[in-house]
Write a structure and sequence with these properties.
With 271 residues, this protein is mainly alpha-helical. The protein has helices at residues 21-50, 57-60, 62-83, 89-94, 108-116, 120-134, 145-164, 171-176, 185-190, 213-229, 232-246, 254-269; strands at residues 2-7, 13-18, 96-100, 178-182. The chain folds into 2 domains: 2-183, no CATH class; 193-269, no CATH class.
């Protein structure tokens, strides 16, 4: 397992662990197995709904079955990575996730770019469909050899990129500006002033930029302690001092105020 450092927009270095190749492989295989199980279920349902025991179900209903199979499987990586913050079910089981190159959460657009350059899953699915369902029938033209060759070459290029690049990035990661890391990095993020903000977030206290990194680290430490120990008196004392230092006044609850300051700083520091 190799490690690398990322200098965040807050001038704090974060250490990240790159997952071993076998963890990436197992995560991918788990996602492929999930896709294959879904295909099997669809074929069983198709046989029950359209089968008459005489004609091949797939050949007669190729368009419908292909649509029902390919659409969910094609959007599965994107949907799960957005839903689970950079993880498919396979990645979740293996304890790895996708982040951006600044050490924060990847954006929806980055997930989309990764998906557009992700052909390995489609290769495995097509091979499964071909050898299990299509090959025994007369519908061999569904999968052309040129398509298989393209998938294989792209998959080889992906694998070489993972091996050669310093941060083990495949083609989709290089294009999207993302990295796959072990989940232990989550603890590193929580120990800094990092806090997630939405893309459409609107800062409330721009005065927060007058604070130093040391000030923000103290605020984050206090905020974390308050959340863990429910020490609201500490939050109130800290909030009062910050209001005096920045010459601002708020009616927000002290805990909410500290959280807002951290979000404001995160948002404004990256703009």
């Amino acid at each position: 397992m190799s490690r690398f450092k990322i200098l965040t927009p807050f001038n704090i270095e974060l250490d990240f662990d790159i997952p071993d190749f076998h963890k990436r492989l197992f995560a991918w295989l788990l996602d492929v197995i999930i896709a294959i199980l879904y295909v099997v279920v669809i074929f069983i349902l198709a046989a029950l709904i359209w089968g008459d025991g005489k004609n091949d179900v797939f050949t007669r209903n190729y368009a419908w079955i292909s649509l029902i199979i390919m659409v969910p499987i094609s959007i599965y990586p994107l949907a799960t990575e957005i839903m689970f913050n950079g993880q498919t079910l396979g990645k979740k089981i293996m304890g790895i996730r996708v982040i951006n190159q600044d050490g924060g959460n990847a954006t929806v657009s980055q997930f989309v770019i990764r998906l557009l350059l992700r052909v390995s899953d489609l290769l495995m699915l097509n091979l499964f469909l071909f050898f299990v369902f299509i090959l025994p029938t007369d519908a061999k033209e569904v999968l052309q050899s040129s398509q298989l060759l393209f998938f294989f070459l792209f998959m080889i290029a992906d694998t070489l990129c993972i091996i050669i690049t310093k941060k083990s990035q495949r083609l989709g990661d290089l294009a999207a500006g993302t990295i796959l890391v072990n989940l232990r990095t989550k603890a590193d993020l929580e120990e800094t002033v990092f806090m997630e903000t939405e893309n459409n977030y609107v800062p409330v206290f721009p005065e927060v930029m007058r604070l130093t990194d040391r000030d923000l680290n103290i605020i984050k430490s206090v905020y974390s302690a308050v959340i863990k120990k429910n020490d609201y008196a500490l939050a109130e004392r800290t909030a009062s001092k910050i209001e005096g230092a920045l010459k601002i006044h708020t009616k927000q609850h002290p805990v909410d105020f500290l959280e807002t300051l951290l979000k404001d700083y995160n948002y404004l520091s990256t703009k």
